[in-house]
Automatic annotation (TrEMBL):
Its main location: membrane. The chain crosses the membrane at residues 20-39, 115-138, 150-172. Signal peptide: none annotated. GO terms for molecular function: peptidase activity. Keywords: Cell membrane, Hydrolase, Membrane, Protease, Transmembrane, Transmembrane helix. Coiled coil: none annotated. GO terms for biological process: proteolysis. It is found in: Cell membrane. This is Exosortase EpsH-related protein. Pfam families: Exosortase_EpsH. GO terms for cellular component: plasma membrane. It comes from the Bacteria. It is a multi-pass membrane protein.
Length: 180
C-alpha cells in the first residue's frame, strides 16, 4: 500500500489559479491593445510604406528566382503579364507576430529574453511572409489552380506550425510558471 500524498493547502491551489487567470487576462490585454494599435495603423501611411517595401523586396526575389517575369510594383501590388498579386495589411505578419508578442510578454521570464524573443519572432515572421508572397506570386503565374488552397490553407498552416515551434523553443529555458 502506498502512502497517501499530503494535500496541498487551499491557499497554494488558489494562488496558482489566480496566477493562471492573471496570465490569461494579461495575454488578452496585450493582444487587444496590440490589435487596436495595428488597426489604427492600417490607414496610416507608415503601413502603406511598409507594405510597399515588402512588395519591392518580393519583386526583387521573384526577379532573382524567375527573371523571365518582368514584375513591377504599383500601389503595394506585384504586376506582370502573368499575374497580379496585391500585398495588403494581412501580408504584414501581424496576425502571427502580435499574439506571439503578447504571449511572450506575459510569460514568466526575464525582460532580456522577452525582447530577444519578440525581435527574433519579428524577423522570422517577416522572412516567412516574404517567402509566402514570393511563392504565392509564382504559383499564380505557373499553377494558378493551386493559388487558393496554398493562400488560404497551406501557407497559414505552415506559418502557425513554425510560430508554435519557435515559441516552444523560446520558452524552454524560461522558468516554469507552476512549480511543485
Amino acid at each position: 500500500m502506498q502512502p497517501k500524498k499530503p494535500m496541498r493547502p487551499i491557499n497554494q491551489t488558489l494562488q496558482r489559479q489566480i496566477t493562471a487567470i492573471g496570465y490569461i487576462l494579461g495575454f488578452m490585454l496585450f493582444s487587444i491593445t496590440f490589435d487596436w494599435v495595428y488597426l489604427k495603423l492600417s490607414n496610416n501611411s507608415f503601413l502603406v510604406f511598409y507594405l510597399n517595401q515588402i512588395a519591392i523586396i518580393s519583386r526583387d526575389c521573384i526577379g532573382f528566382l524567375a527573371p523571365e517575369n518582368k514584375v513591377f510594383v504599383h500601389n503595394n501590388a506585384l504586376l506582370s503579364a502573368n499575374a497580379y498579386l496585391e500585398v495588403d495589411a494581412s501580408c504584414s505578419g501581424s496576425d502571427f507576430l502580435l499574439p506571439m508578442a503578447a504571449a511572450m510578454l506575459v510569460f514568466k521570464t526575464s525582460l532580456k529574453q522577452k525582447l530577444f524573443g519578440i525581435i527574433f519572432a519579428a524577423v522570422l515572421i517577416s522572412a516567412l511572409n516574404l517567402a509566402r508572397i514570393v511563392i504565392l506570386y509564382l504559383i499564380k503565374c505557373y499553377q494558378p489552380i493551386w493559388f487558393v488552397p496554398v493562400h488560404e490553407y497551406i501557407a497559414p498552416g505552415f506559418n502557425i506550425i513554425v510560430c508554435c515551434l519557435y515559441f516552444l523553443y523560446w520558452a524552454l529555458p524560461a522558468k516554469p510558471v507552476f512549480t511543485e
